[in-house]
Amino acid sequence: MFKNFKMISNVVFGRGSFVQLDDILKKRRHHSKSWVLFVVDDVFQGKLLEKRIPFHAKDMLLWVNVNDEPKTSYVDTLTLKVHNFAKTLPAAIVGIGGGSTMDLAKALSLMLTNAGFSHEYQGWDLIKNPAVYHIAVPTLSGTGAEVSRTTVLTGPEKKLGINSDYTVFDQVLLDPELIRDVPPTQRFYTGMDCYIHCIESLQGTYINEFSRAYGEKALALCREVFLNGNKDTEENRAKADDKLMMASFFGGMSIAYSQVGACHALSYGLSYILGTHHGIGCCIAFDALEDIYPEGVKEFKEMMKIRKIELPRNVTKGLDKEKMDKMITVSMGLEPLWENCLGEDWKKIMTKTKMKSLFKKM
Ligand code: NAD
Ligand code: ZN
């Protein structure tokens, strides 16, 4: 069976396009009782962006904290808060933030129309009812969460997304001005998530012309952003932000029709056991994968050098046997990722011993 890819219905791109959000929402405010739920990263509390949110009297502003990446328990708490706020469903949900906040907005849009707990829906196509209309406004670029059909959540038993066509945003608003003030290290880690999406997609066995078309362009954009020796001027940074925002979008499109690979499988293990965040976790794992992605890793190290990034080292040092085994089990469980990376016979190549040696290298 071929994938019947669910795409986003509407996309706005442009510097300053955030002002258009109110107009977009106007079309959703069908009657006087209509209200909008804004799900916003609390890093913007008291910042200029807060004042720019097109908030109307009946709306709800839900600040979310992403110091920890989204958990199912957090999604359930937030869902309850929204239910307590109003008896009716919001006319729209707007997620403003990075991958974590966008994922929380997606999860809320699903959990407001589907009964039970969010961990019950971790998996593929378990969602029964359509989501509330939802909009993504990324303020950090790289994850591709703005285009993907998943919301990645850590549950009581596993880190796994709620994957469904209903998860996909209805509208995306890409305003590169919003990523201007991301701290450079965070920008690098999340940007590298996109670079790694491209390498894993393009070098994978699932590659096809759909994914290649998006992946090659996204990779070229990542190189323009992270390999250039341009002076750090306001103008150059703005140009780079425009490119990075499109790289993230295209990188997400590329993996949507192929798959990620070894680096993501290993980073999920790191995240589950050590709580390592996605972008930095991917960088730590990728750095150890020169046998699998020799050219990609070489270029990645060059980018780290140019951007003066020092990765944390020895992150798995002192890990007891039980935790190491669990980390291996979590990573090994991501079978499609391994199959994409190493082919059908991947189990003969990526043995537990081999995986352990990779984790020890990190
Ligand atoms: P993030 O959303 O976790 O944010 C990282 C940090 O940057 C946070 O402290 C946040 O407050 C801050 N931040 C965000 N925007 C900022 C801005 N404009 N200025 C200053 N600080 C800002 O980071 P991320 O790398 O974008 O997302 C990682 C998350 O995305 C993980 O939870 C991961 O599981 C998820 N993810 C989802 C998908 C998907 O397809 N759904 C794909 C990859 C990753
Ligand atoms: Zn990723």
Describe this structure in words.
The protein is α/β, with parallel strands linked by helices. It has 2 domains: 10-179, Rossmann fold, CATH 3.40.50.1970; 184-361, Up-down Bundle (Dehydroquinate synthase-like, alpha domain), CATH 1.20.1090.10. 46% of the residues lie in helices and 11% in strands. The chain has helices at 21-26, 48-52, 72-85, 99-111, 184-202, 209-226, 234-256, 262-274, 278-287, 294-306, 321-332, 335-342, 346-349, 352-361, and strands spanning 10-13, 36-41, 60-64, 92-97, 123-124, 134-138, 152-154, 159-163, 171-174. The strands form 2 sheets. The chain has a 6-stranded parallel beta sheet, with helices on one face. α5 runs parallel beside α7 (234-256). The structure holds nicotinamide-adenine-dinucleotide and zinc ion.
The parts where pLDDT drops under 50 for at least 5 residues are none
Order of helices and strands, N to C? EHEHEHEHEEEEEHHHHHHHHHH
Q: Helix count, per DSSP?
A: 14
The CATH homologous superfamily of the largest domain is named Dehydroquinate synthase-like - alpha domain
Bound small molecules, which ones? nicotinamide-adenine-dinucleotide, zinc ion
CATH class of the largest domain: Mainly Alpha
Residue share in β-strands: 5-15%
User: Which assembly state applies to the chains in this document?
Assistant: single chain
Radius of gyration of CA atoms, rounded to a whole number: 20 Å
What strand order characterises the main sheet?
Answer: 1-9-6-4-2-3
Query: What is the number of strand segments?
Result: 9
At CATH's second level, what is the architecture of the largest domain?
Up-down Bundle
- CATH topology-level fold name of the largest domain: Dehydroquinate synthase-like, alpha domain
How far apart the termini lie comes to 38 Å
The major β-sheet equals:
6 strands, parallel
Query: Given the C-alpha coordinates, what overall shape results?
Result: globular
Structural class: alpha/beta
- Whole-number count of domains: 2
Let me know the average pLDDT: 97
* Helix content bin: 40-55%
